[in-house]
Specification:
The complex is a heterodimer of chains A (about 290) and B (about 280). By secondary structure, chain A is mainly α. Chain A contains eleven helices and no strands. Chain A folds into two domains: about 55 residues, no CATH class; about 200 residues, MetI-like fold. The radius of gyration of chain A is 25 Å and the shape is elongated. Classes of the chains: A mainly alpha (about 290), B mainly alpha (about 280).
């Protein structure tokens, strides 16, 4: 209760601000429309008009809610208008990219912890690679792959993988290095091989770090999948919904796609958090 | 098959050199190892492209990219000014100022903090770039809409970090400054803001890359006939890959410089922090 009340208050305040903003942003168009129909421009007439425009500058929250509901529940899920279908297209690319990216990150981290030459060679470039706005090459990756004949899920997954691999790499390297000299010495005194040290000491102690970075990575890989759908005129996925909405001025469609993406991101992070709790509990690491 | 031999030789040679150098582990060899690795990747890239006749549509050689970079410096500079200086930098400054001001404003109300922090954390994980088409509609095609996208993108990471930073002083320190009868603003200015600086800079550094991404991606939704995002999408349409890669080089250089400058300011302002003392 101590935490829910403030959050609810802030959320309500945001919705209230949104309604006020929707009224003022849509006022211009409402004035024109009402003048054309010859109705008395009273406040209530204007207000009703701003709340129910076909293509508002800023749709009111309930319009977005209706758009979201129709997109999710109002269509058959195989329909091209269904947000569930578009969400699934984006989700599959996200998950594929997340799997590739986090696996690469973990493998590289294991290599970096065990090999000093690799540490000194790869790590500075991995860090430098993050100052590069990688999303900028998204259109290129898609076009290049299309010219080789690879289309559909894989190009988007590669962009997702590229975005999600770095947090996992850094988090895992940090985690694999948490065992201190004392614990490593203890393992050595038990005559443990490098393999055993990795599986029984380093990997378990890296788990909390790994999961923290997996949460960041899955959100990043969703962003990657959505941006990957923007450039090459993709016809499916939440990113394509955003793009076609912006071409045709369908603001309600844009906002519904945006909220669907937000909900998807929230659900994915929650699922990873749930797996984290379960795993850490099984391993006796839960706090 | 024969073409693969020199490539393998270069790879093994560079790797052997690095493995040998890494054993010394001094500051100079660390830099050297990283440089050798980067250079060997470039050489291998060039060799592979030449040996296997990879068409430049798929992957141009580094030399082609450099040539395109040299031939298009004027265009690249115009794009740099449009996207990085006008779009990303102005948006980043506004967003950072707004976020820090908001954090200080809600600092006095624990109620608002408890409400805003979970929401800020949640929003920071959302695909905010998706807001780009909406803002492009509102603010037009020129750099103002890009700056607006950047403001929204950098706001929440900096806000969350600043709130965490303002809570970073412990009760003992606050009591001490209270015994010196410091008022709210004095204790904020002399104790809590300096203590929050490492956190604030963490947020600022994270958001440098976000700012560039926001400015470039927003241009995919509409832009005047200049700008890096515009150039990338049109050059991809013309299959002029060396130019695309030249833009990426510019983006990489700008991103690294941006990050480097912020890190430099951080080192000057938070010289007392353990992570800065080596």
């Amino acid at each position: 209760m101590n935490r829910i009340l403030p959050v609810l208050t802030v959320l309500l305040a945001i919705i209230a601000v949104w309604y006020v903003a929707a009224y003022f942003l849509n006022l211009n168009w409402a004035n024109q429309q009402i003048a054309r129909e010859g109705i008395e421009p009273t406040f209530s007439a204007l207000f009703q008009n701003t709340m129910a425009q076909e293509r508002p500058v800023l749709p009111a929250p309930h319009q977005v809610a209706v758009g979201l509901w129709e997109g999710i529940a109002g269509q058959k899920i195989t329909s091209k208008r269904s947000l569930v279908w578009h969400g699934w297209v984006t989700l599959s690319a996200t998950l594929a990219g997340f799997a590739i990216g986090s696996l690469t990150g973990i493998l590289l981290a294991a290599g970096i912890v065990h090999n000093r030459a690799m540490d000194q060679s790869v790590m500075p470039w991995a860090i430098a690679s993050q100052t590069v706005p990688i999303l900028a090459i998204a259109p290129m990756v898609i076009v290049v792959m299309a010219s080789v004949g690879v289309t559909g899920l894989l190009p988007k997954a590669i962009i997702s993988a590229w975005l999600s691999f770095f947090p996992v790499l850094v988090g895992t390297v940090k985690g694999l290095r948490t065992p201190d000299a004392m614990q490593l010495d203890l393992m050595r005194s038990w005559n443990a091989s490098a393999n055993q040290v990795f599986w029984r000491l380093r990997l378990p102690s890296a788990m909390p770090y790994l999961f923290a970075s997996l949460k960041v990575a899955i959100a990043a890989s969703l962003v990657g999948a959505i941006v990957g759908e923007l450039p090459a005129g993709a016809t499916a996925g939440l990113g394509a919904r955003l793009l076609s909405g912006s071409y045709y001025g369908q603001t309600v469609q844009i906002w519904s796609a945006l909220f669907a993406a937000a909900a998807l991101a929230g659900i994915l992070v929650l699922i990873v958090g749930w797996i984290e709790r379960l795993t850490l509990k099984r391993m006796g690491l839960a706090r | 098959m024969m073409a693969a031999l020199p490539i393998l030789a270069v790879w093994l040679g560079a790797w052997g050199l690095n493995a040998w150098l890494a054993r010394f582990d001094t500051r100079a060899t660390r830099v050297l190892v990283a440089l050798i690795f980067g250079a060997s990747i470039l050489i291998l890239w060039e060799m592979i492209v030449r040996a296997y006749n990879v068409p430049s549509v798929i992957l141009p050689a580094p030399s082609q990219i450099a040539a395109s970079f040299a031939a298009n410096t004027r265009t690249l500079w115009i794009d740099f000014v449009q996207t990085i200086l006008k779009g990303a930098l102005s948006g980043w400054l506004i967003g950072a100022a707004a976020a820090i001001a908001t954090a200080i404003a809600i600092d006095r109300s624990p109620f608002l903090q408890r409400g805003l922090l979970p929401i800020g954390n949640f929003v920071a994980a959302l695909p905010i770039v998706g807001i780009a088409p909406i803002l492009v509609m509102w603010f037009g095609f020129d750099w103002q809409s890009k700056a607006a996208v950047v403001v929204v993108m950098v706001f929440f990471p900096i806000l969350v970090n600043t709130i965490a930073g303002l809570a970073a002083t412990d009760a003992l320190q606050r009591d001490l400054i209270a015994t010196w009868s410091a008022g709210y603003w004095q204790s904020l200015w002399k104790l809590r803001l300096p203590a929050a600086l490492p956190f604030i800079f963490n947020g600022l550094k994270i958001s440098t890359t976000l700012a560039l991404i926001g400015a470039i991606v927003a241009e995919f939704f509409g832009s005047p006939t200049r700008g890096m995002g515009f150039r990338i999408s049109t050059a991809v349409g013309q299959l002029d890959m060396p130019l695309v890669w030249a833009e990426i080089v510019v983006a990489a250089l700008a991103g690294s410089a941006f990050y480097g400058i912020v890190a430099l300011i951080e080192a000057r302002l938070t010289f007392w922090h353990p992570s800065q003392r080596t």
